[in-house]
Amino acid sequence: MYTVSPRAGDLFYVRMLLLNVRGPTSFEALQTVDGVVHPSAKAACMALGLLQRDDHWRRCLAEAVQSRMPRALRHLLAVILIWGEPEDGSDLWCSFAEDLSEDLRFHHRDLSTEEITDLALRELQSMLISMGGRSLPEYGLPAASVTPQDGPMQFDTVEQALITEARLPMLTDEQKAVYESVTQNLVDGTSGLHFLDAPAGTGKTFLLEVLLAFVRSRGEVALAVAASGIAATLLPGGQTAHSTFKIPIRAIRSSKDVCAVGAQSKQAAVFRTVRLIVWDEISMTNRKDLEAVDRCLRDVRKQDVPFGGVVFVCAGDFRQLLPVVVHGTRANSVMACVSRSPLWKFFRRHRLTRNIRLLSSSDSATYLRYTELLKQIGSGTIEQDAEEKVSLPAEIIISAEAPLNDLINFVYPSFEASVERDGYFASRAILAPYNDSVDAINETCLGMFPGSLREYRSIDSVADEDAATHFPPELLNQLDAPNFPIHLLRLKVGMPVVLLRNINPPRLCNGTRLIILAMGENVLRCKIAAGQFTEDEILLPRIPLIPSNADLPVSFKRLQFPVKPSFCLTIHKSQGQSLDTVGIDLSVGCFTHGQLYTALSRAKNAANVRVRIPGTRTRNVVFPEVLTED
Ligand SMILES: Nc1ncnc2c1ncn2[C@@H]1O[C@H](COP(=O)(O)OP(=O)(O)OP(=O)(O)O)[C@@H](O)[C@H]1O
């Protein structure tokens, strides 16, 4: 079919209809949607949802109002302002001000209308701040009377002291040695850089929480960051390292990258007073990011010593996945590790080796065997053949010759609605190394999941109108990128999905698992499935997204819900997530360092793991050079 430029007017829309309407016998039939004959091809395209309507955001909010959740509605407006960049934010505010403050009117009956409006604006402003947005007037909305401060989360000193007191006597000898070494620096006012080498289950989070509480109980500032949003949710007050330090997000990093923290900014003021920085999942962090933070802290704190003299504790496990280097070689991946940074020699290394989960397990013999297996797989000391293949215990293997449903039924014995079903998805998942297998497994699970299916087609467009003739919408629809929503999103109520963007970390980050509660035309009502914000309900709009994949032939924008089905996740996405039941599909084996170890170590017990492999052996990739140097 010939391509047509969007500048060709109706012809462009007729072509679009021809591609999407089945078996039309006349122009009238072509322009008929749900029994209504539309006056133009463009109007019919609108009605079919093939074009973004001018009033998209207004429709989205109008639909969300029906849920009668004013706080979620304010959150939705904040998401729209930041991600949607609507042309007229003020119009949206004016049209929905009443609905946006309904709960505040109810709870504060003594306040005047102006005071209620101001309260709603203040709440909206703090949401914008926590989501990394700008001030209300910059979006065309009225300013709130008080601008909420963008600073570190405040902690109750008494509560923090109670945490420290309760946990101190519980620390194991290994944990206590680290605690004493770090608190020595904090009490003496000396600087100190510590690296906690902690395999899964050895009480790393427990220990980091005590250290954070120690500083916060003294009324001092302790920052908790992690390489990924999901790992950040595990630490009290945790944020991603990127958002805390304003590290530039680049596909190709440079040694000259600087954090976007102005000397006069509030963030700089926090960095000048901070006593302790805790950085989790450091093994996934690119060394250039750590080096940018080092330069930033030296600069802001006016001390030319590593990290400006702050006490710094990072924790990680180099047996797990390494930083992702797009199209990188093995050497590129290894060189991207923080352990290859010139700063690494300043870090004092501590090891946690005792698996505390094991101690509390009822069947410690089985647990011990599984922990030993994990250790050997992670370190690459397990016996392997010339193809790097290793044997796994027969009891955890499901044959790849058997139907995929065997693995699905092990992880999800039933998809039928029950009181416990939602909790189900918090604690179980299928994992696979490649996106293609993940998509195929999700599709099979979706077919088995009860309920009626709703399809959401994205609206795709190129930024450059001149390129539009060469890249018609049906071609853009076929483009796909990692961590990017697909054109045809198929959903059912009650199913699990994973969020693909850091919308509001740590509550809603790239990797947060959600359950779909209701599906509207422009809004999804979901609840958070796992982690400290479990059960929180949110309203999610379609947002315009631009893929960061430089390999795509054209730069384009996709308006779609930022989610993907999550019955199955990639092993990369599962890092940092704790699961009770895990099914790993290795019909196509692992391809990079730490994948097998990361997948197997998501579960705490061999009885709850099944691995689908051809035969009895599967590939285990380990880069020993990363493990010797860390
Ligand atoms: N000293 C301790 N006394 C009692 N319980 C502990 C202690 N240390 C850790 N635990 C408990 O052991 C379990 C595992 O600890 P934690 O979650 O801190 O491990 P982790 O190293 O962070 O593991 P993962 O990386 O898998 O999340 C938790 O239930 C934690 O509360």
Automatic annotation (TrEMBL):
DNA damage recorded as keyword: yes
What range(s) does the DNA helicase Pif1-like DEAD-box helicase domain occupy? 170-386
**What is the required cofactor set for this protein?**
Mg(2+)
GO MF annotations, alphabetized: 5'-3' DNA helicase activity; ATP binding; ATP hydrolysis activity
Return the Gene3D superfamilies for the record.
P-loop containing nucleotide triphosphate hydrolases
> Sorted alphabetically, which keywords does the UniProt record give?
ATP-binding, DNA damage, DNA recombination, DNA repair, Helicase, Hydrolase, Nucleotide-binding
Biological process annotations from GO: DNA recombination; DNA repair; telomere maintenance
Q: Which residues form a coiled coil?
A: none
> What domain of life is recorded for the organism?
Eukaryota
Which reactions are catalysed by this chain?
ATP + H2O = ADP + phosphate + H(+)
Q: Does the keyword Magnesium apply?
A: no
- Every copy of the DNA helicase Pif1-like 2B domain together lies at 474-517
Task: Enumerate the Pfam families for this protein.
Answer: PIF1, Pif1_2B_dom
Q: What is its EC number?
A: 5.6.2.3
Q: Which SUPFAM superfamilies match?
A: P-loop containing nucleoside triphosphate hydrolases
- Recorded family membership: Belongs to the helicase family.
Tell me what this protein is called.
ATP-dependent DNA helicase
Per the UniProt record, the lineage of the source organism begins with: Eukaryota, Metazoa, Spiralia, Lophotrochozoa, Platyhelminthes
